User: What shape does this take?
Amino acid sequence: MVLMAKRTAIWLVFVGVLVVAVAVFFSLRARAHRVGGPLPSESAVEAFRAVVRDDGTAWTMFGGGQGLLGRAATQLPDSLMLLWRFKTGGEVKSSAAVVEGRTFIGSSDGNVYALDLHTGGKLWSFATGDAVESSPLWIDGVVFVGSSDGFLYALEAGTGQLKWKYETRGDILSAPNWTRSPDGQDVWILVGSYDNRLHCVDAESGQAVWTYETDNYVNGSPAVADGKAVFGGCDAMIHAVSLADGTRLAGIDSGSYIAGSAAFLDGQVYVGNYKNVFLRADVDRDEIVWGHTESKSPIFSSPAITEDMAIFGSRDDLVYALRRDDGQRLWTFKTLGEVDSSPAVSGDKVIVGSDDGRLYMLRLADGKEVWSYEIGKPIASSPAVAQGVVVIGCDDGTVYAFGGRAPVGEIEP
Assistant: This one.
């Protein structure tokens, strides 16, 4: 009987250890899935690395281009790996520019950073006088970015050396955009400010070309196309302004103040407002074409626009995809937090962050989750997608870069 009792005790201990081991295994598997994929073995980690593709693509500004359409030219696989992370001294709400193997981004620690896209190593930093939530614009070897100290800065992209700074009378959270002068000889920079104005500044001299005044803060970025700058304001208006001289071309009442940036394509403006409505407006006809009212919370996210869809996030924790022609819902995707991050479309995929601390990759056709990575802190920054890489900031003060997997043997040293 004593021998039988000992055998039973040993068996129970063995079963207990086995149960704990199985529980730990599946816990690790579940955690690995939450942070972006299966838990790799040591040999698997050594066999694969995330890579940057020298495919000639770039993401030179917020929204990816002058129309703020959120379209990337590079392609992404169905699964990404962490390429690198870079720690700053404050929340990173700014969104990156990615050009020629470098990325430029701001931080609430007051700095603008230039990082090596392959390694995440710091190339230079430039200190402004306050938080940098504005997103950098790269053009012709110069980085333009606003700061909450009220200045628009022009920095040499190669060195970070200050070229000039232009003072407004309010915080600049807006990301700069650009256009050419009517004669095509000069580059002009456009940026909104909390002094209630849209400013047009000569890129070479830093002198004002013209300013356009609204009745409240200009938080979002201006979209540029067809000789017009189009933007929403905290005065609830959708403004269309002549790029040539800053005169008013249209003013459309959206019904509530607009914090996000509008996308502009084929004379149509797409933007959400604080009354939970996502709108399409016709600038030439000076009227709203349709309004989508299913969102239960304000819309701060700026849309990505494809040939037939508008995709945006909302503070009701959802990502929406609507038909461009009539505003009818095609799909929604539920996150676990507010979605202020602005989506980017890359081929058949949508990339977007959420305040639930996750970066999501969704299928464009139906909104199904393809991949996600759990960072753990809110993501208000918007993804920049170029050279096969996704760069995004996080409220944990870190800039993250993700790339596709490639066998180590295929990676050039």
